[in-house]
Task: structure prediction
Amino acid sequence: MWKHLSSLCLLVFTFSEVKSQRIFAVNYASQADIKVWVAQYEHQSDLKVFKVKYRHQAEGNEGKWHFTDYAHQAQKKIYYVQYRHQADLVVFFVPYAHRAGWRDNSKKHLLY
Result:
């Protein structure tokens, strides 16, 4: 009984960890999982991102990012590049949560 219960708890915990998008911005490109360029206009982006204040507010892979204080807390480490051609992903930060989301679904795999 306890074995099954502990397996279930582990599964639920693992699923909840995969659900959120915890991000940490690193200082060097070599430390990053993804190189990101911030677009000036929404139509230039692959992903529209909304910054959430709390970890539990980040939902799935839909552009709601929670920025962590430490690298070990993050699921993905990003590095902001200066030029678009250097980026793996182009993002645009939106002011409202309902506007967050993917514009180019072919890049979704970068944040899994």
About this structure: Strands lie at 21-25, 34-38, 47-51, 64-67, 76-80, 89-93, 101-102. Residues 20-111 form one domain. Confidence is low (pLDDT under 50) at residues 8-19. Helices lie at 2-19.
